[in-house]
Amino acid sequence: MRTVSRICSVARTQRRLFSVTSRRLDNYAFIGLGQMGYQMARNLQSKLAPTDTIRLFDINKGAAETLAQELKIQQVSGAAAQVADSAIEASREADTVITCLPEPQHVKSAYQSILEGRLSARSQPRLFIDCSTIDPSSSHEVAAAVSSALPGGQGNFVDAPMSGGVVGATAGTLTFMLGAPDSLVARAELVLLRMGKRVLHCGPQGAGLSAKLANNYLLAIENIATAEAMNLGVRWGLDPKVLANVINVSTGKCWPSEVNNPVPGVVETSPASRDYTGGFGIGLMRKDLRLAILAAKEADAKLTLADKASEVYETAEKEDRCKGRDFSVVYRWLGGKE
User: Which long-range contacts (CB under 8 A, 24 or more apart) does 199-204 make?
Assistant: First the structure.
């Protein structure tokens, strides 16, 4: 009995020693502080440990400096935030690198800079998480470059485009569509759930982007159809709120009708009720539609409505009254009553 007692005592002591062992310090890099990235970086920083470090970089250095200053003034708890002068400076000591950039060429350029620089040795393989919405082919190209520059599994690249817009980025309620091998899902989720509320593992690297572009292609079509249907009903003399209620309990129900209704006043929280500001920009929708069309051609998938939808967004965006506004502004372009 005394022997068993001594063993138990040693085990308890070992557990106590393990529990007070200092946690590993983590270093993060966040590259790309646009409307989405700015808020995502803020949420990530606030949920990291004070012993961690997050280095911020944007080609507009003022964005990184503003965020770092805001965090300092507001005394936000979380990781120490530092401003970097380049993508490689931000990434050199990072265990996890997150990128959130506008176009494929920006993603390629950032990773070329990072991989050509002198990355310090890390105790665990680096994880690169690209949250940009780009075409799958470009993403595969970057993933191959990472594997080539950091052989032996020392660098892993995954794609994690998101849904939820600026509102979701600010509230930390984004949904991420993750393209990654099974072995990296848990590690990527740990990071992404600090910036959102849901991670959907779509398959291997590139699958997240495929899912995102398929979804946004559907969204682009639904938005135009909703704007046309609402305009049609209003011109027939229907109250737009009554029409929206009918649609939203019937087979026409969709996100553009229920949440992002294009008629001002129907949904008080929609961009349409704020002169089409503060939502998903028409230029971004045009870009995503273009990427979806490109990816569809590579997959030999027929998109019968793509060309006309692309024409609608391109034409609408050229008008001053629509440019830079939420993509539901298509209703205004159609001549809808406001």
Answer: 199/160, 199/175, 200/175, 200/176, 202/177, 202/178, 203/179, 204/179, 204/180
One of 47, 197, 212, 323 is an active-site residue; which one?
212
Burial class (CB in 10 A: 0-12, 13-18, 19+), 13: exposed
SS3 53: strand
Residue 258 has a CB neighbour count (10 Å cut-off) of 18
N residues, the chain: 338
User: Per residue in 319-331, is it b (16+ CB within 10 Å) or e — as a string?
Assistant: eeebeebbbbbbb
Closest-CA residue to 36 (of 80, 99, 109, 83): 99
pLDDT digits (tens, 9 = 90+) for 47-78: 999 999 999 999 999 999 999 999 888 777 89
Residue 313 near residue 289, CB atoms below 8 Å: yes
Residue located via tokens 């935030």? 81
Active site residue 212: yes
* Amino acid residing at 95: D
Q: Are 249 and 241 in contact (CB under 8 A)?
A: no
CA distance 180 to 188: 9
pTM of the model: 0.87
For the residues of 67-114, what is the DSSP string, one character each?
HHHHHHHTT--SSEEEE-SSHHHHHTT-SEEEE--SSHHHHHHHHHHH
Return the beta strands (E) in the chain as ranges: 27-31, 53-57, 80-83, 96-99, 126-130, 155-159, 162-163, 174-179, 196-203
| 254/143 Cα distance (integer angstroms) | 35
Tokens matching residue 311 = 């024409």
pLDDT tens digits along 160-177: 999 988 889 999 999 999
**Helix and strand totals (H; E) in the chain:** 14, 9
pLDDT at 238: 98
Sequence-distant (≥ 6) Cβ neighbours of residue 68 within 8 angstroms: 56, 81, 82, 83
